[in-house]
Amino acid sequence: MEREKHVNITRAVTATVCIMTLLLTGCASMQGTKAKKYFSNLYRRIPYRQEGPHRVIKIFYATSRAVVDKPDADLEFLPKMGENLTGGVLDVKIDPSLKIGKMLPKRFERTGEIGLANIEKVDIDVLANNVREAIDKSPHKSLLVLVFGFKDDFHSIAIEAAYYSYMLDVNTPILLFDWPGDQPVSIRGYNRAKENAKASGVFFGKVMAAVAEELQPGDKIWIQASSLGCQVVCSGFEYMYKHPALADPQEEIDHVFLAAPDISEDEFNESFKKEIAALSKNVTAYVSFNDNALLMSSMLNGNQRLGRQTVKGVGKKELRKETKNMLYLKSLHPDKVSLVDVTPINKASYGHGYYLEDPQYFDDVYLRMFLTSSHRNRRLYLVEYKDGTDYWVLKK
After folding, report:
1. Are the C-beta atoms of residues 276 and 231 closer than 8 Å to each other?
2. Where are the domains of the chain?
3. 313: left (phi over 0), alpha (psi -120 to 50) or beta
4. Against a cut of 0.85, is the pTM above it?
5. What's the chain's average pLDDT?
6. Which residues have CB under 8 Å from 248's CB, separation 6+?
7. pLDDT per residue over 75-90, tens digit each?
8. What is the CATH number of domain 47-394?
9. Core vs surface per residue 199-235: b (16+ CB within 10 A) or e
10. Residue 117 exposure: Cα atoms within 13 Å on the Cβ side
11. What are residue 67's DSSP bridge partners?
């Protein structure tokens, strides 16, 4: 009996040693590029194809800017408004070792960390059909629409869209809405960009209406807008609100994210009460007290910008005026609107580009996209106001 027991133990030990040897041999054989490829493929949800050392992401685009289609040459995207919508698809190469950090699209393109590989132009109807097919193939039956702000040209915006999509890492089709925000960095240039943003709202609304006509029950649309791009979206909602494809009682948009929104509080209030609330199930506005870019915008526009806010003073007898205004906006539809103060985590240049540079921001957006119950995030600190109106603060 003892001898049989000893034999069984010996066999078990031998088997264990053999298994460990095989595992160690397998790990040891995973050298160089094989090991890199194995580990680089872990935990990525966003769809891509491999091209040499780069990953290639496909992005749909639609733009309100003038586009010149030259024979035997690349499309030229001009810094002025076009007469018609232009749409298509583009491929963006990304170095898989790229990490979340300072957003420098020109440098990324120069060093080859991110670059445009191919740009095609298609009719808007064809684009809508292509987006429909991509939504059908996606696991969440979803579409993420991206709208960025002032200063950057089409190539830089495309790089920012690919970077944002790659870092957010959601398996969903991407639609970039581009507009001629690449105006001179001056008072006159900013004012021209603001005019272009408002004028681009109709173009944005037309794109969203074309997409909505192709939607099916259960489909999700997420809209992420930042800076002056939020003006494009808010102006677009005025068009969308009147369009037959979007005028039904069903809310076609699952969530609208407004990061560092460069729009006036009054205008957002007026648009929100009817258009945005009627068309979207959820709205989250990210605000920051140390956003110096929006401080300059406030001075130029002569009014408070939605994205430059603070929760300082909560807990004292008198709240800051702008905080009261924000809480009032939320109180209009407390189940739909969330306000998030990102001041504690905002280390971006000029306190403005946190929506591309701070990991906590990506974490929060990701959680809000998929959580169906009241938002609970360990990085958030909830400050209660009154009458059930909440204000969230994003912590490190």
Report:
1. no
2. 2-30, 47-394
3. left
4. no
5. 78
6. none
7. 999 999 999 999 999 9
8. 3.40.50.1820
9. ebbbbbbbbbbbbbebbeeebbbbbbbbbbbbbbbbb
10. 18
11. 77
